[in-house]
């Protein structure tokens, strides 16, 4: 199979909706792609949905990277930084950056050339305590913005902010709970989200680009990439089912 | 509260956060995330519910104590013994 190629602007977002996997033998194929350690972890799951999500997420990551690097998906080895950000043990040419995320029923893998990126997905849900979580784990400006919203819009806005924040910290390879006030996102209906940094932390919000969009009917997606505004990303959303 | 009562209280919170999940076969020693489709947002919801219902503050560095039902009950026992 010919290798897929990226250009400097493109981000490919591969995704699998678990409900769309009609052929049960697909799971056997996914399993055959996993490493020994991943299979051991897989066996520890006692909950079917959680087990399948982990399996599909890891298979999607391996298969996706294999398509761009030409390496056997089974042979790819990963290392992880202190906050769990994965990278390939053996560098590849051209340098490939990737990020994975999964939520109930959906696994995604985003890839780009060279620039660190992060992706986060969340399924629509009722969050019991959006304001309380935001006051403790978001920037004060974000919590204040949520508080001003009508109660019926607060849950969706909370999930948008959550996914943006998580995509951003994944791109930077730091922990979600690290100094929540260091950065704040501002949401607007008619333009992309923007970030501002606390004076003591980072200096150039313009060095980052963000995207947020809906996937299928139930999912909120956020992407963050360390790329200046002149390199606005072209996002290609690609279903990965069936292999 | 006794260990059994704390376990029941945790189950009630889990039921509210993941209403579609069957909690009857939950194994106390196995990490919750290996048994239920819980993510980090759910865990923060659990922390917030403990605060709201029982006024228990859990510092972020101690969130790992909530990994399994057994570790959660053990961690909460001294905090909830007089409730």
Task: Give a description of the structure.
The complex is a heterodimer of chains A (about 240) and B (about 80). By secondary structure, chain A is of the alpha+beta class. Helix content of chain A is about 30%, strand content about 30%. Chain A has six helices and eleven strands. Chain A has helices at about 25-30, 35-45, 50-70, 130-135, 140-150, 150-170; strands at about 10-15, 80, 85-90, 95-105, 105-115, 115-125, 185-190, 190-195, 210-215, 220-225, 235-240. In chain A, the strands form four sheets. A four-stranded mixed beta sheet of chain A has the order 4-5-1-11, with helices on one face. Chain A has a three-stranded antiparallel beta sheet with strand order 6-10-9. A two-stranded antiparallel ribbon of chain A has the order 2-3. The mean pLDDT of chain A is about 90. Chain B is mainly α and about 80 residues long. Chain B has a single domain (about 5-80), classed as Orthogonal Bundle (Non-ribosomal Peptide Synthetase Peptidyl Carrier Protein, Chain A). In chain B, helix 1 crosses helix 4. Chain B is globular and about 30 Å long. The longest helix of chain B is centred in the first third of the chain and has 15 residues, at about 5-15. The interface of A and B includes residues 50, 104 and 125 of A.
């Amino acid at each position: 199979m010919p290798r897929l190629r990226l250009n400097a602007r493109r981000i490919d977002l591969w995704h699998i909706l678990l409900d769309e996997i009609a052929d049960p033998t697909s799971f056997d194929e996914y399993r055959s792609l996993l490493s020994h350690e991943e299979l051991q972890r897989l066996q520890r799951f006692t909950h079917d949905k959680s087990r399948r999500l982990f399996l599909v997420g890891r298979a999607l990551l391996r298969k996706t990277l294999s398509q761009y690097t030409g390496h056997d998906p089974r042979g790819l080895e990963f290392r992880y930084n202190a906050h769990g950000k994965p990278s390939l043990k053996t560098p590849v040419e051209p340098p490939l950056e990737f990020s994975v995320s999964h939520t109930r029923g959906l696994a995604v893998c985003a890839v780009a050339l060279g620039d660190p990126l992060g992706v986060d997905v969340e399924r629509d849900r009722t969050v019991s305590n959006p304001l309380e979580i935001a006051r403790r784990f978001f920037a004060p400006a974000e919590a204040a913005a949520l508080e001003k919203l009508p109660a019926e819009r607060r849950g969706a806005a909370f999930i948008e902010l959550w996914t943006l924040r998580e995509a951003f910290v994944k791109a930077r390879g730091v922990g979600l709970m690290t100094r929540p006030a260091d950065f704040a996102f501002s949401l607007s209906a008619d333009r992309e989200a923007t970030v501002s940094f606390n004076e003591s932390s980072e200096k150039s919000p313009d060095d980052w680009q963000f995207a947020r969009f809906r996937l299928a009917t139930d999912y909120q997606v956020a992407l963050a990439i360390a790329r200046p505004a002149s390199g606005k990303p072209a996002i290609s959303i690609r279903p990965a089912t069936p292999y | 509260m006794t260990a059994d009562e704390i376990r029941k209280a945790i189950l009630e919170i889990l039921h509210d956060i993941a209403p579609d999940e069957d909690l009857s076969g939950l194994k106390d020693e196995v990490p919750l995330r290996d048994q239920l489709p819980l993510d980090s947002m759910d865990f923060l919801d659990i922390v917030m519910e403990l605060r709201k219902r029982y006024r228990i503050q859990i510092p972020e560095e101690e969130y790992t104590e909530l990994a399994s039902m057994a570790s959660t009950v053990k961690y909460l026992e001294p905090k909830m013994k007089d409730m």
